[in-house]
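Lecture notes, continued. The same structure-token format from the folding unit now serves as the input rather than the output. Read the line below as a description of shape only.
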């Protein structure tokens, strides 16, 4: 495993997030088959496809990925991300071979974004407020990399408006968020979308955001997106302008709930 990159910002908060980093263990209980038995058929197919029998409930994952990100122009990036089912995410990237370094975090209702030139010169600092609300939407969408976090419980409610469509209603601090998953006939994920907070022309509002899944892979008992593209105005003609992220997952490690 490569050394963990330095994380700028709130060191106490970063250490707390990393306390739940993946360990690679997968021996602490399993997701019961009954957990997926009382949901609409489209949701059942997705959960059965995404979660292998015997897989433990997952607390967090660490992803290593590479791809292209659009910031005016398309630039290559390499990144590492920790996603915690209960807390949020920490995404760190080197863009354009080190020209830019980006750190983006959402942790239990708080958020910050930092962009540095050559790792030395601050270009962007943002935190809290509207950024946190937007980051919350991202955290909900990224549950597809922790599919055991979508197993129905007292909070998450599934519905199915169409045979190939499953909607997980996820409660958040800003109300319920409908996470829409389109699947193939066997439950393989084709896309995920939701309304997400975005600034446009100086005003913030909910905008369709989503990810098209171009390939999937199985890591440690879960089948998740391994290649895809994401952006704003998902599902409309404006997605061509709103797309800003193309990724390939190189590795994935997970930590079960203790």
């Amino acid at each position: 495993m490569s050394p963990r990159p330095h994380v700028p910002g709130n060191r106490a908060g970063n250490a707390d997030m990393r306390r739940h980093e993946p360990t690679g263990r997968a021996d602490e209980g399993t997701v019961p088959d009954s957990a997926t038995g009382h949901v609409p058929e489209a949701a059942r197919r997705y959960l059965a496809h995404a979660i292998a029998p015997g897989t433990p409930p997952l607390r967090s994952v660490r992803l290593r990925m590479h791809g292209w990100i659009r910031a005016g122009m398309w630039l290559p990036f390499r990144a590492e991300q920790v996603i915690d089912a209960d807390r949020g995410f920490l995404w760190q990237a080197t863009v354009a071979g080190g020209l830019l370094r980006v750190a983006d975090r959402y942790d239990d209702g708080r958020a910050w974004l930092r962009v540095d030139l050559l790792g030395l010169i601050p270009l962007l600092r943002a935190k809290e407020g509207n950024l946190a609300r937007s980051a919350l939407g991202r955290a909900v969408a990224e549950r597809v990399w922790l599919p055991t976090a979508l197993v129905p419980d007292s909070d998450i409610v599934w519905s199915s408006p169409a045979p190939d469509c499953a909607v997980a209603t996820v409660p958040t601090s800003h109300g319920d968020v409908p996470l829409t998953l389109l699947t193939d006939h066997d439950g393989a994920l084709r896309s995920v979308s939701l309304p997400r907070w975005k600034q446009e022309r100086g005003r913030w509002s909910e905008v369709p955001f989503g990810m098209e899944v171009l390939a999937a892979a199985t890591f440690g008992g879960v089948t998740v997106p391994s290649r895809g593209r994401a952006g704003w105005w998902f599902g409309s003609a404006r997605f061509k302008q709103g797309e800003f992220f193309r990724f390939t997952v190189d590795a994935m490690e997970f930590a079960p709930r203790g």
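Point for the exam: The domain at 20-256 is CATH 2.50.20 (outer membrane lipoprotein receptor (LolB), chain A).
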